[in-house]
Each structure stands twice: as structure tokens, then as C-alpha cells.
Amino acid sequence: MSPPDCDDNLVVNFYDNSVAAESWQWDVDGDDIIDYTDQNPTHNYAPGVYDVALTISNGSETLKKVFPQYINFTSNIYETSKVNLRYL
Question: What residue ranges define each of the domains in the chain, with the CATH number in brackets?
Fold first, then answer.
């Protein structure tokens, strides 16, 4: 039997509930490059700290909101040689 996969990632589902928005631009890793143009994207993160920015437009107005250090993810893989389990 093989061991289970130990992916060191975090899956985040983003949701925008803006009224009358017609376009979305998500920068989900703080690199100032648009990663998604969907209203509700899903992104996989490696461990790290990330800013998230959302720009929405209704065709005549544009609004941008930046969330500094919104994602703060440390590894979910543990050093098992240092874990001490005790069964009673």
C-alpha cells in the first residue's frame, strides 16, 4: 500500500458579491499580474504570505480593493520524527 499524497498547498475559493459588476480582475498572489477574470475563482497556494487585490468594473466605474497579507499559509506537512503520540 502506498502512502497518501502529501500536497503542501492550500485551496482558496474567492467570492465577490458585488452588485452590478460586469468585470473582475483578481491578483491573488501580490505580483501585480491579473491571475483571474472570473467572478469567483479558485486558487492553489504554496506556503507563504500573499496580498490579494480585486478590481471590479460596471463599465463606467472601476473600484480596486487591496487586502495586504490576506493569505498567510504555513506548511501543512509536519515533521513526523518530532511528533510524540501517546495512546492510553
Answer: 10-72 (2.60.40.10)
- pLDDT tens across 9-45, in order? 899 999 999 999 999 999 999 999 999 999 999 999 9
Phi, psi of 45 (to 5 degrees): -110, 140
Q: What pTM, to 2 d.p., does this model score?
A: 0.78
42-to-35, 39, 60, 85 alpha-carbon distances in Å: 10, 10, 27, 35
How distant, in Å, are the alpha carbons of 11, 21, 29, 73 from that of 47?
11, 31, 11, 5
The x, y and z cell numbers of residue 53, run together, are 487585490
Non-local (6+) Cβ contacts of 32 within 8 A are none
